[in-house]
Amino acid sequence: MGSRLTRRAAVPLLALATALSSCSAPSPKPAVHREVAPGARLKDPPELVSHNGLLRARLVVQRRKVDVAGRKRWALTYNDRYMPPTLRFRPGDKVELDFVNRVRPYTNLHVHGLHVSPKAPADDVLIHIGAGKTYHYRYRFPQALKPGTYWYHSHAHPISAPQVAGGLAGIIVVDGLERYLPSALRHITEHTIALKDFQVQGDAVKTEGLKIGAPTHRTVNGQLNPTIHIRPGEVQLWRLANISANIYYKLRLRGYRFRVIGRDGFPVDRTFTRDTLLLAAATRFDVLVTGGRPGRTVLETLPYSTGPAGNQFPRAKLATLVSSGKPVARVAMPTTFAPPEDLSHLPLARRRTVVFSENKAGTEFYINGRQFDPHRVDLRSKLNTTEEWTVVNTSNEEHSFHTHTNHFQLMSVNGVPHHGHSLQDIANVPAKGRMVIRIRFTNYTGKTVLHCHILNHEDAGMMAVLDIVK
Questions:
Q1: Looking at the predicted structure, is the pLDDT value of residue 1 above 80?
Q2: Residue 340 included in any domain
Q3: At residue 39, does pLDDT exceed 90?
Q4: Is residue 335 part of a domain?
Q5: From CA 296, how far away is CA 361, in angstroms rounded?
Q6: What confidence tens digit (pLDDT) does each residue in 371-386 have?
Q7: The domain containing residue 232 runs over which residues?
Q8: What pLDDT is attached to residue 388?
Q9: How far apart are CA 344 and CA 26, in angstroms?
Q10: Plastocyanin-like domain location, by residue (predicted)?
Q11: How large is the greatest C-alpha to C-alpha distance in the chain, in angstroms?
């Protein structure tokens, strides 16, 4: 069953490969799932929900043999699940997580997209939590935190890609979107549509020698082609989230349109509809879907190329939508939505150029000509100022640009003005292209990072340290 929109209450990779490898011999590459029979009903992840302003929970990281797309496979898990529990809370809440690590050599936790302190014991991604250690994460979120869909995952450098690909990724929901919806849409069914892919090695989810363009099994909430039910005319909220390590999704729901009400955890100021949505690595969209005439259709990802030096992602079927049952009276969709967030008229403290590049072999990646060094500050910005960055991509493949701690406004792409109707924390930088963003630093000081969210690229150097100072 869907939940309700209103609240229901520097180590070599070899070390990780050795620690996580299965005892089974490698099997041949799996076939890509293209057209498969409709699966079981979609299962939304279990939820850990805040009460009276506090979410207190225990997250245990370990390698277990668990259900992955209907088969028992070795995977990296949070709380013994390949699709782990959703963390759900409200703006202004406190979250206390007792984080128990049982995998080698180390890991950590990033609450992706959330506006929260980058200092320990909050969202400090520069720490390593060794095997057998427990770390006590403590977060206090501002009342102004935006409602929407976020996610959590390993950010352990330089092994974030194998850990996320191995299973260490889950959803975060910040409640409150309902206040922007018309009254008729405040109690609708919502579904998590977490896009998570895996490759197979023997009886395990692969965590070594990851090739971005290799055949992969694409799942929704860890299920292969689950069935989603809707009534004709019924409106549902779908939380679309790309929580994979590296790959892109170009989503289409045949015969339907997505009405976008939020992106990357930020509600839009004006809703808009799209036939397709590009979810570059780590992107999220909150959308409304209205049930059509009785029948079935497919949620699919369309073929997509990230450029001559990038990857060619094939079409794949993700889920089956079945419209059936007693029709529901149609409801007018909202147009204006949340208050606008516009940085375009703010005075600028400075302008910067941030260059993404890579070597010819595609094995080393750089920001402003340098590979990541956690002990070096690459950019320094002042609290309560706004900056304009021109992000230049000199490579022949696209990159998924991401900032921690503060969202940004995408102003233009290749010189063409962009009107996204919200701030965001992910933007796709075209091959041999450029984009302009504006970012305002509010509330929090400390060392944070910006990087490409294609995690193979991040692990290979495409990350920089940003120090926010008073």
A1: no
A2: no
A3: no
A4: no
A5: 45
A6: 999 999 999 999 999 9
A7: 183-323
A8: 98
A9: 53
A10: 61-175, 204-290, 359-467
A11: 61
End-to-end Cα spacing for the chain: 48
Q: Is residue 57 located within the same domain as residue 144? A: yes
Q: What value does the mean pLDDT of the chain take?
A: 93
Averaged over 445-467, what is the pLDDT?
A: 98
What is the rounded CA–CA span in Å between residue 139 and residue 129? 17
Q: Are residues 199 and 169 in the same domain?
A: no
Bridge partners (DSSP) listed for residue 78: 61, 81
CATH number for the domain including 461?
Answer: 2.60.40.420
130 and 189 within one domain: no
- Res. 312 pLDDT band, cuts 50 70 90: very high
417 plus 290 within the same structural domain: no
Polymer length in residues for the chain? 470
Residues 157 and 73 in one domain: yes
Assigned domain for 113 exists = yes
- Please say if the pLDDT value at position 4 is more than 80: no
pLDDT confidence of residue 14: 33
In a domain, residue 331? The reply is no
Return d(Cα 84, Cα 195) in angstroms, integer. Answer: 13
H or E segment to which residue 18 belongs: helix 13-20
Could you count the other beta carbons within 10 Å of the beta carbon of residue 319? Answer: 24
Question: 171 with 205, same domain?
Answer: no
Residue range 172-186: mean pLDDT, rounded: 97
Q: Mark residue 20 as left, alpha or beta (left: phi above 0; alpha: psi -120 to 50; beta: remaining).
A: alpha
* Structural tokens at position 377: 């500050």
Do residues 195 and 151 touch, judged by C-beta distance below 8 A?
no
pLDDT at position 37 is: 64
The string of pLDDT tens digits covering residues 98-122 is 999 999 999 999 999 999 999 999 9
pLDDT at 17 over 90: no
pLDDT for 196: 98
Residue 154 sits in the same domain as residue 237 = no
Query: Contact at 8 Å (CB) between 420 and 383?
Result: no
CA atoms within 13 A on the CB side of 4: 6
The residue out of 176, 192, 209 marking a domain boundary is 176
Angle, CA 170 vertex, CA 287 and CA 112 arms, to 5°: 75
Task: Check: CB of residue 301 under 8 Å from CB of residue 250.
Answer: yes
Q: Are residues 58 and 190 in the same domain?
A: no
Name the domain count of the chain: 3
Q: Which amino acid is at 317?
A: K
One-letter identity of residue 460: A
For residue 197, the Cα-to-chain-centroid distance in whole angstroms is 13
- CA–CA gap between residue 159 and residue 17 (Å, rounded): 10
Stretch 75-94: mean pLDDT, rounded? 98
Give the closest residue to 407 by CA, choosing from 420, 435, 385, 426: 426
**Cα 27 off chain centre by:** 29
* Tokens 């979120």 sit on residue: 141
- When pLDDT is averaged across residues 406-421 and rounded to a whole number, the result is 97
Which residue, 134, 156, 176, sits at the end of a domain?
A: 176
